[in-house]
Amino acid sequence: MTRAVSRRRFVTISAAATGLAIIPIGRAVEAEASLVSWSGIALGAIATMQIHHPDRLEAERLIERSLAEVRRLERLFSLYQDGSALVELNRTGILVAPAADLVNLLEISQRYAELTDGAFDPTVQPLWALYADHFSRAHADSNGPPADALRTTLSGIGWRKLSIGRNRIVMPSGTAVTLNGIAQGYVTDKIVDLLHIQGIDRSLVDIGEVRTMGSHPAGRPWEVAIADPDQTGRVVTILPMIDRAVAASGPYGFRFDSEGHFNHLFNPATGRCADRYRSVTVVADNATSADALSTAFSFMPKSQIQSLMPAAGIEHVHLIDATGNVSELNA
């Protein structure tokens, strides 16, 4: 298996639309000086926070509190931490007295599944296992898993198979859940909520997806660079952001085969991998929506995306199709 351009390199925080360093002047110097930055790993990906606060020690305290919250949520949503709530659910098919955040996120996931007619589906995890097992074998068929194995796996997929309640979560044998298409956005929103409660109104949080709080302290919008998925270091466009979130999805995130024909975005209806777009970037007022819909839109024609944008609360969608053509959709 090979990794392509990572998701975290695709959406990046840009210092300026020119890509050049900025030397702030006058009051902007003071504003920049009161930005306390952190970068590290969260939810298995590069993460950053830029907290605007006149008291550096208080800003650092808020970062530590935010990271503690990230770790708490990761223990619920992670597919890779032994003992996480999600690992336990997938192992046993039942979770008694589940944590409120897990119930909330699964209920949100089901709402997006219903809204997108199943294009977003948290039960596609068995497809990951199928493709990972197939391509880990020596001399694996380059055409992907055999049709009969794909049909068997698809029989366990379907968001309606999940029974979600405050007292327990239950699903049948052959079904497994992944929250990788929505958890990063949800965690990003939770950190923004935490900071808002603490009186922060000008900051940037990137816990897998990007969400800005107010404008940049220097008095301009925050700037998020959308990179070319096929050319490392090349920026396609800059999105000015004030109180908005942005998320991106595309086959570049992970590829099972060296040719790049099979990736981590699975169509729940067919079990096949996304190939309509090279990238889908979504702007919304919250990161949970942007995250989930960037996944779901990966399987839809532009006309269907456009029709769903108002109901989904999506303001802007930036598409690069399989041939490299760029489209901009606005609600």
If you had to describe this structure to a student in words, what would you say it looks like?
The protein has 331 residues and is an alpha+beta fold. The chain has 2 domains: 7-79 and 187-330, T-fold (Roll); 85-170, ApbE-like superfamily (T-fold, Orthogonal Bundle), CATH 1.10.3980.10. Helices cover 34% and strands 22% of the residues. It is built from 10 helices and 14 strands. The protein has helices at 7-10, 27-33, 56-77, 85-92, 100-115, 125-135, 147-154, 183-197, 287-296, 302-312; strands spanning 11-13, 35-42, 45-52, 94-96, 163-164, 168-170, 203-206, 210-213, 222-227, 235-241, 245-249, 277-284, 314-321, 326-330. The longest helix has 22 residues, at 56-77. The chain starts with 6 loop residues before the first helix and ends with a strand.
Fold blueprint:
Layout: H1 7-10, E1 11-13, H2 27-33, E2 35-42, E3 45-52, H3 56-77, H4 85-92, E4 94-96, H5 100-115, H6 125-135, H7 147-154, E5 163-164, E6 168-170, H8 183-197, E7 203-206, E8 210-213, E9 222-227, E10 235-241, E11 245-249, E12 277-284, H9 287-296, H10 302-312, E13 314-321, E14 326-330
Antiparallel strand pairs: 1-9, 2-3, 3-7, 4-6, 5-6, 7-8, 8-11, 9-10, 11-12, 12-13, 13-14
Tell me, what is the CATH class of the largest domain? Alpha Beta
Assembly classification: single chain
Q: How much is the average pLDDT?
A: 88
What letter string, H or E per element, gives the SSE order? Answer: HEHEEHHEHHHEEHEEEEEEHHEE
Individual helix count: 10
- Classify the fold: give the CATH topology of the largest domain: T-fold
The strand order across the widest sheet is 2-3-7-8-11-12-13-14
Q: What share of the residues lie within helices?
A: 25-40%
The total number of structural domains is: 2
- Looking at the overall shape, the CATH architecture of the largest domain is Roll
Radius of gyration, whole Å: 20 Å
- Cα shape: globular
The class by helix and strand makeup works out as alpha+beta
